[in-house]
Design goal:
The protein is of the alpha/beta class. It contains ten helices and twelve strands. The strands form three sheets. It has a seven-stranded mixed sheet with strand order 6-5-4-7-10-8-11, with helices on both faces. It has a three-stranded antiparallel sheet with strand order 1-3-2, with no helix packed on it. It is globular and about 45 Å long.
């Protein structure tokens, strides 16, 4: 899946390191890393987002949600090689799906465009992936994480929804509704994203567990949005998240019934 190289000593051939992408003084990798940033009218925040992105990433994919400000021009001035994708539909889920399709890296990192995420943390996500995880999930409530942005009501709602997912799907998450995640490209073949709104993160978290993928939580600190206001609505989007959980639970039960049905047993017997 990946190759990892500790920083070569003086006795190593200089040419060997040239095949790797150094990400710290102790670690280098071969997989190209794509950072996907969904954005709509985030021109004022992008300078804060881009200045924390590490220079060793392979590409930045900006998904523009039909911005009416200078979002695209600012992105190109900050990162000349940025890949700009025009969002086809509406909603964060739709934007991320478009960005994932356009990304060419073996590793894909999701980063919000509001300045709440620290790009310096990407090294922790990538390190988890090259060390064996399939999906590196950011958590504001894991030891070492934190948030400056969540109200008490949102924290309680996130905790309640997270508890339901853990109990119903056998997950061990400390955070559910957080958009800072990273994963190997092959995960997309197993989770089949098909939602358009903020509930996309919950859907991903549920489906990676259902697919049996190895998940590692990464402590992450969420900062306050720097400029503008969020499109997130706690009650509305909380209900959409709950609906996704119930649908995924229903789908899981239906699949179990199919597997246990006499017809399925007879087909398996005929096949053998």
């Amino acid at each position: 899946m990946s190759s990892v190289l500790r920083t070569p000593g003086p006795d190593r051939e200089p040419l060997l390191a040239a095949h790797y992408r150094p990400i710290s003084s102790h670690l280098a990798i071969t997989p190209p890393v794509s950072v996907v940033i969904p954005a709509m009218n985030e021109a004022e925040n992008l300078p804060y987002v881009f200045k924390t992105l590490p220079d060793w990433i392979h590409e930045v994919v900006l998904v523009d949600g039909d911005s009416t400000d200078d979002t695209v021009d600012v992105a190109r001035s900050l990162w000349p090689d940025v890949k700009v994708v025009a969002q086809r539909g509406k909603g964060k889920g739709d934007a991320l799906i478009s960005g994932f399709e356009a990304a060419s890296g073996d590793i894909i990192v999701m980063v919000d465009a509001d300045g709440s995420a620290d790009g310096n943390e990407i090294v922790s996500y990538v390190s988890a992936l090259v060390s064996g995880a399939d999906f590196a999930k950011g958590s504001r409530f894991a030891n070492g994480g934190g948030t400056d942005d969540m109200t008490l009501i949102r924290k309680l709602g996130n905790w309640a929804l997270c508890t339901v997912v853990n109990r119903k799907f056998g997950a061990r998450y400390t955070d559910l509704c957080y958009g800072y995640n990273a994963f190997w490209r092959h995960c997309l073949d197993k989770i089949d994203l098909d939602c358009t709104g903020f509930e996309v993160e919950t859907l991903m978290n549920i489906r990676v567990v259902k697919a049996g993928l190895k998940v590692q939580e990464i402590p992450s600190h969420e900062y306050l949005r720097i400029h503008g206001t969020s499109n997130l609505r706690a009650v509305r989007d909380g209900l959409r998240v709950l609906r996704v959980i119930l649908q995924e639970r229903s789908n899981r039960r239906a699949l179990r019934r199919i597997r246990r049905s006499p017809l399925a047993d007879s087909r398996r017997g005929a096949a053998s």
